[in-house]
Amino acid sequence: MTHTGERHSPRGTPRSGERPAPGVAPRAGLAPRVSLLGWSLVLLLGAVLGFGLLTLWITSVAVVALWVGIPLTLLSTVLVRWFADLHRQWAADRLGEPVARPYLPTPDGGWPVRLWAILRDPATWRDWAWLVANSITGWFTYGLSFLFFLCGVFYLSYPLLYALTPPQVFRTPLGNGFRLHSVQESFALVPLGPVFFLLWYTTAERLANLNALVTRSLLAPTAQAQLRARVAELAASRAETVDTQAGELRRIERDLHDGAQARLVSLGMSLGLAEQLLPDDPQAVQQLLAEARASTAGALAELRDLVRGIHPPVLADRGLDGALKALALANPIPTTVVTRLSGRLPAPVESAAYFAVAEALANAIKHAQARRIQITVEFTPHPGTTAGLLTMRVSDDGRGGASPDGGTGLRGIARRLAAFDGTLSADSPPGGPTEIRMSLPCASS
């Protein structure tokens, strides 16, 4: 087995593959602006489509009393939410951070029940407000950028347009006070082309980011909605944590009752019988004492296993790094451990991370039929603080097909991590390979 321990690079040095921090700073280079030019045309067409969806929805609501408006309203709502999701993704790509969907769950039931729930959802009305705002602000953001580019092309090619068009066209480009009489005079407008190209180059990124900010302000969840979602998430996490801890307590009680306690009861009976036989049959007493010693050793072994299942001593002594290496040494499949930890983590976080990795490793051993496993643990601090994100990856070359919904134990890991605001995701196509990614926000000492 191979074990490697690596330390962090200096805090100011970005690692390869690390995503840049969220922000709206303009990107250098011509290629991003040319890409935005195409996006500007797509978004302008989208603004027209959005206005059409707004018209459809207003018409549907107007005839909802005729019942035919109910399916039309539901259909237009689905279309608008799909359309808004596309713009959320656009804003997320521009700003470098996700834009969450703010919609409330739609209850089961008939069309009237679902329609009433949709109409009561504040996010629905914010979608319609965004459609109105986008049909206006779009022309002053990406529309203005597209116009700057077209003006640049127009003025650079003005002499050609002057020569190819009828005499009554393109002769007064700046009004009747500025009339052109020849192709040579039309070259006076050519310098305006680079001016507009410069305006397009310097404003394209900023105008696109401005549009993304407007989109996020209207389509992202409000602070109140985020607070409600956070409260619901914490309530669910607390309930799952309570259930998990209750299950752990029942397991400990069962293991004590069926294991160590039964052995200790047997030990007491053996010692009592030995006490009775001591005057008459010393040889039988010797055999009983040997059985008692074996029962004592078995009870101690079971107690050690039980304690190791609660909090492994190696975790307290050597930290997460040493505990994972010890876990890999006991693994029957060749396992590589790569750690990048700048210091000790809080004990509850180390325990949650250890058992999450251990469970993922057990799943790989049991289900994946893997020949090689790699465990990678890395702590990434936030700039200027000791807080950061602990990421864990358990990769194998097995048959794949792992899913949090597949009953492979990943849901239990996700519940354990959720108590610490952690997340779990699985990349496991059929045929493999598999990578289980887990993360925990925490602080390092």
Give the tags.
445 residues; alpha/beta; 62% helix; six-stranded mixed sheet
Can you tell me about this structure?
It is a single chain. The chain is of the alpha/beta class. Helices cover 62% and strands 10% of the residues. It is built from 13 helices and six strands. It has helices spanning 30-62, 69-95, 111-120, 122-140, 142-156, 158-164, 183-186, 192-219, 223-277, 282-310, 313-329, 347-368, 410-418, and strands at 2-6, 335-340, 373-381, 387-396, 423-427, 434-443. Strands 1-2-3-4-6-5 form a six-stranded mixed sheet. Helix 12 links the parallel strand 2 and strand 3 (373-381). Helix 1 crosses helix 8, helix 2 (69-95) crosses helix 3 (111-120) and helix 9 (223-277) packs antiparallel against helix 10. The protein is elongated.
Describe, in short, the structure shown:
The protein is built from 13 helices and six strands. α9 runs antiparallel to α10 and α11 (313-329) runs parallel beside α12 (347-368).
